[in-house]
Design goal:
The complex is a heterodimer. Chain A is built from 11 helices and no strands. Chain A is mainly α. Chain A has one domain. In chain A, helix 2 packs across helix 6, helix 7 packs antiparallel against helix 10 and helix 7 runs parallel beside helix 11. In chain B, helix 3 packs across helix 4, helix 5 packs parallel to helix 6 and helix 8 packs across helix 11. Classes of the chains: A mainly alpha, B alpha/beta.
């Protein structure tokens, strides 16, 4: 058998293995990716609008808040599931069990072993993001106005964002020890999520110019804005070409950096 | 001429960090098809590093390793198709059952669903694991896990099997079972390279042995040949209460034709001699005045060969 076909089958084997492990934990997976957006929608778009007179936060939320945060919540779902699917298992496989040696002995170039991890996590991220849509339809008090008319852009943004999240997971998983992974969540993942233009469009930061420029270094911004441009185009968003360039750039940079860390860990 | 399956040429590995460590220092080895080859040496001798390079997990500083003609540095993915590895530690997939560990391993190596399933069932049967096919690695004892690892390593029918300290941490019964498994594979014609610091293991399993220390090959040959070339000697370790005035005794011993060497040790005297006939009573008598506490006699073995070559015990 020639090499590319053989590599493809090995890659498929790894993917099937991950799929088997995932199906065994399907309910925990759905709970893990669904709980956060569900609660968020419930509190901010269901409870708060019903207490508008007493609660000043409700005014901030407002009737359209569901429409504004739907893309943001999808971005958060992509982000968290991408990191959970790559960084957490990788960090423990590199750790004391050295299980990674099992995967590394596959008849595949090492970069392809890492790529499989990223691709599989991207698949999980896509499922996680799509799960948010029905929630956003049924939970909020006021109906969400999602309007996907450019399906190509939507698919492109979804896939690129998911690959970006998986690449970030690869960076974290291959550079951070299991002991410090919780800390990384608190000091990197949570801040970039909160400041990732999840709860508001980027354009609305114009009154705080230093922040508006500062968050441009945050890849989550482009995930949120890209989903905003494709899912709720009625809300102000960055131009689509800028979003795509940034997504491609961050995915490539993180994948490269993550791959370097991966190779350093498996090859001495 | 027998085909060479593993060719290791002038292999070196130097770890450059705060401390410069020369783990492998110019090793040359050739493995013939179908033989069991033992790498014997103390911990830190360079055995595991050599195996890691040959199995594509470590890059050499210089030198080459070829598996059935394939250079492992230039074509690692291709080389991995030809090798099976049983690493020193349990690297079974903790998220999969015993059966799935074998099944997905086969899938990684290009087997179809049907082929992978039948091969896995065959291996479970061969390694007496059928009853445990649904268990997870965490539920297995060390011996059973090792058996699954061996089954997994040969599942894709590799040309050469690498076993890194296969009996480390195993109870004697599991060790015997593992030896039997390796001998079974040998009969099937698989070439095996194993590392060990148990000389009994190297002695009873290997067709040929290389004794290595400080990253170099000190001796190479069949266990029988090594013993007759280097170690036709018996080692007497005498533990003494006092070592004062021992020098004349040592000189007298050295003067004997049957004594190869005699030297003082931290807690006594070590005498290496060609034969024990007549020497033992003399020895006991000679050192009587020094308070003989204990006497250990090591018959000619790979261990005595090793001690003779390096001046240290394998387990030191």
């Amino acid at each position: 058998m020639n090499s590319p076909a053989f590599f493809l089958r090995a890659f498929l084997g790894l993917f099937l293995r991950d799929l088997r492990v995932l199906t065994r934990e399907l309910i925990p997976f759905v709970l893990r990716v669904g709980m956060q957006p569900l609660l968020f929608l419930f509190v901010f778009t269901f409870i708060l609008p019903r207490m508008s007179r007493a609660n000043p936060l409700a005014a901030g939320g407002g009737a359209d808040f569901g429409t504004i945060i739907l893309p943001g919540l999808m971005a958060v779902a992509i982000m968290f599931s991408g990191i959970a699917a790559v960084a957490l298992p990788l960090s423990s496989e590199f750790g004391i069990t050295r299980e990674i040696d099992d995967r590394v002995m596959c008849p595949l170039p090492l970069w392809a072993v890492a790529l499989e991890k990223v691709c599989f996590s991207a698949m999980q991220s896509i499922i996680a993001a799509l799960l948010v849509i029905p929630m956003a339809y049924y939970v909020p008090a006021a109906p969400v106005q999602a309007d996907v008319h450019n399906w190509f852009l939507f698919a492109l943004v979804l896939v690129l964002s998911s690959l970006l999240a998986g690449s970030l997971g690869l960076v974290i998983g291959s550079t951070v020890s299991p002991k410090h992974i919780g800390l990384v969540f608190s000091i990197i993942v949570v801040p970039i999520t909160f400041l990732g233009c999840v709860y508001y469009p980027w354009a609305w930061l114009d009154k705080i110019p230093w922040l508006q420029v500062g968050v441009l270094f945050n890849p989550i911004v482009y995930m949120s804005e890209g989903l905003r441009a494709s899912v709720t185009p009625g809300i102000t968003h960055m131009p689509w070409w800028a979003i795509l360039i940034a997504l491609v750039f961050f995915t490539a940079a993180l994948a490269r950096f993550g791959l370097r860390g991966f190779l350093r860990r498996v090859l001495s | 001429m027998t085909r060479l399956i593993v060719e290791i040429e002038n292999l070196t590995k130097i770890y450059e960090s705060k401390l410069r460590v020369v783990a492998v220092d110019g090793i040359d080895l050739d493995l013939k098809q179908g033989e069991i080859f033992g790498l014997l040496g103390p911990n830190g001798a360079g055995k595991t590093t050599t195996i890691s390079i040959a199995t594509t997990r470590t890059l050499p500083t210089s030198g080459t390793v070829r598996i059935a003609g394939i250079d492992v540095v230039e074509h690692p993915a291709h080389a991995r198709r030809l090798i099976g590895v049983v690493p020193q530690f349990n690297t079974l997939d903790r998220s999969l059952t015993v059966f799935e560990n074998l099944y997905y391993h086969c899938r990684y190596f290009g087997f179809s669903h049907r082929q992978a399933k039948s091969r896995s069932l065959e291996l479970l049967d061969q390694f007496l694991l059928s009853e445990r096919n649904g268990m997870y690695p965490a539920q297995l004892s060390g011996g059973l896990a090792q058996r699954v690892q061996i089954a997994r390593a040969i599942a894709h029918r590799p040309t050469v099997l690498f076993l890194d300290e296969p009996s480390a941490g195993l109870d004697p019964q599991s060790r015997m079972a593992m030896w039997e498994a390796v001998e079974g594979l040998h009969k099937e014609g698989i070439t095996v390279l194993l590392t060990t610091h148990y000389m009994e293991e190297a002695d009873s399993l290997s067709d040929r042995v290389a004794i290595i220390d400080y990253g170099r090959v000190l001796a190479l040959g069949s266990p029988q040949k090594l013993k007759s070339t280097f170690g036709a000697d018996t080692i007497f370790d005498l533990k003494l209460r006092s070592q004062q005035g021992l020098e004349p005794v040592i000189s007298a011993l050295k003067a004997r034709p049957d004594v190869t060497s005699a030297e003082a040790h931290a807690d006594g005297l070590r005498v290496i001699a060609a034969s024990s006939d007549g020497l033992l009573p003399d020895l006991v008598q000679t050192v009587a005045g020094f308070g003989l506490r204990d006497l250990a006699i090591t018959e000619p073995s790979l261990e005595t060969v090793f001690i003779k070559l390096t001046g240290r015990d394998l387990r030191e």
